[in-house]
């Protein structure tokens, strides 16, 4: 799209404690915000049907005319080698390693 851009993120490799920069292609960016730690609440538990391992928390943000909540991703987990392998596998098969479909529903073996 016309709004497609590259977001540069710093990723910490948990297996080797290395830090590196990576470019992530996104459809668009609406805004960039600094969120203080005291504005972040723990990730909610959605039950067993939805994997929340990649959610860092919920950020409560205020602007001049509104308030909102943003889901904050744990970029280190999202961009880990294991997660990338699982995403590639899910894209090919339609299910993740834990048996959930790309829609978050548990798949059944025949």
Explain this structure to me?
The protein has helices at residues 75-78, 81-93; strands at residues 5-13, 18-26, 40-41, 55-62, 67-73. Residues 102-110 have low confidence and may be disordered. A hairpin with a 4-residue loop joins β1 and β2 (18-26). It contains two helices and five strands. It is globular. With 110 residues, it is α+β, with helices and mostly antiparallel strands. 15% of the residues lie in helices and 32% in strands. The protein starts with a strand and ends in a 17-residue tail after the last helix. It has a three-stranded antiparallel beta sheet. Strands 1-2 form a two-stranded antiparallel sheet.
Give keywords.
110 residues, alpha+beta, three-stranded antiparallel beta sheet, 5 strands, 32% strand, globular, disordered C terminus
Provide a concise account of the structure shown:
By secondary structure, this protein is α+β, with helices and mostly antiparallel strands. Helices cover 15% and strands 32% of the residues.
């Amino acid at each position: 799209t016309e709004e497609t851009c590259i977001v540069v993120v710093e990723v910490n490799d948990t297996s080797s404690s290395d830090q590196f920069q990576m470019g992530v292609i996104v459809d668009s960016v609406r805004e960039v915000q600094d969120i203080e730690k005291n504005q972040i609440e723990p990730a909610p538990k959605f039950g067993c049907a939805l994997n929340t391992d990649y959610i860092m928390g919920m950020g409560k943000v205020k602007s001049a005319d509104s308030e909102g909540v943003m889901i904050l991703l744990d970029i280190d987990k999202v961009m880990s080698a294991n997660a990338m392998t699982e995403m590639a596998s899910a894209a090919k098969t339609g299910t993740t390693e834990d048996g959930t479909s790309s829609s978050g529903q548990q798949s059944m073996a025949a």
